[in-house]
């Protein structure tokens, strides 16, 4: 069950600031939004409880950890049976190189963003792992030449 919460302008300010710097202190947040630290703490807890705020993480620069190649991979399934989809989605969740995966409408069944060290690394993943999955019929790969925009911040 999804918890519901009314989000007001102060909550939206907090969400914008936390998406910029999740390590900011409650005191600094309070000062930035013109509220008390206790009020900010209660609001953040309510946003966490409602599932609006999820995990606090640190973002890693993929280039600096030898994962500088980003590939958009589109997949078509052999079967749309529930068991085939569940097995494939379980496979996706277990693969660390798959950063995102979306079930799609239209011509392709899934679209993924895969990060790897180089083209050979992607070829290994594609040929030895992805295309060998019994549910996968075909894949199309598109290599990112450069990153124009990357954000994890949701507009609030």
Account of the 3D structure:
This protein has 156 residues and is an alpha+beta fold. The protein folds into two domains: 9-49, Orthogonal Bundle (Arc Repressor Mutant, subunit A); 62-143, Alpha-Beta Plaits (2-Layer Sandwich). It has five helices and four strands, in the order αααβαββαβ. It has a four-stranded antiparallel beta sheet with strand order 2-3-1-4. Helix 2 (26-33) crosses helix 3 (37-49). The mean pLDDT is 96.
Q: Which terms would index this structure?
A:
156 residues; alpha+beta; Arc Repressor Mutant, subunit A; Alpha-Beta Plaits; 2 domains; 4-stranded antiparallel beta sheet; 5 helices; 4 strands; 37% helix; elongated
In order across it, which strands form the biggest sheet?
Answer: 2-3-1-4
What is the helix tally?
A: 5
Q: Strand fraction band? A: 15-25%
The stretches of 5 or more residues where confidence is low (pLDDT under 50) are none
Secondary-structure class: alpha+beta
CATH superfamily annotation of the largest domain: Lrp/AsnC effector binding domain/regulation of amino acid metabolism (RAM) domain
Q: Count the strands?
A: 4
* General form: elongated
CATH architecture of the largest domain: 2-Layer Sandwich
Largest sheet: 4 strands, antiparallel
- The portion of residues assigned to helices is 25-40%
For this structure, the CATH topology of the largest domain is Alpha-Beta Plaits
Can you tell me the CATH class of the largest domain? Alpha Beta
Average of pLDDT? 96
Q: Report how far apart the termini are.
A: 22 Å
Helix-strand string: HHHEHEEHE
**Domain tally:** 2
Rg calc: 20 Å
């Amino acid at each position: 069950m999804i918890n519901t919460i009314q989000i007001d302008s102060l909550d939206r300010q907090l969400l914008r600031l936390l998406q910029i710097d999740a390590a900011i202190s409650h005191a600094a947040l309070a000062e930035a939004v013109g509220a008390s630290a206790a009020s900010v703490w209660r609001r953040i807890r309510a946003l966490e409880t409602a599932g609006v705020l999820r995990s606090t993480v640190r973002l890693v620069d993929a280039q600096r950890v030898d994962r500088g190649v980003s590939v958009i991979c589109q997949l078509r399934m052999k079967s749309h049976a529930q068991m085939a989809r569940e097995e494939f989605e379980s496979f996706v969740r277990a693969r660390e190189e798959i950063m995102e995966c979306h079930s799609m409408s239209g011509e392709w069944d899934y679209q993924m963003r895969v990060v790897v060290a180089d083209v050979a690394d992607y070829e290994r993943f594609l040929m030895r792992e992805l295309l060998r999955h019994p549910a996968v019929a075909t894949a199309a790969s598109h290599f990112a030449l450069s990153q124009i925009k990357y954000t994890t911040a949701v507009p609030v």
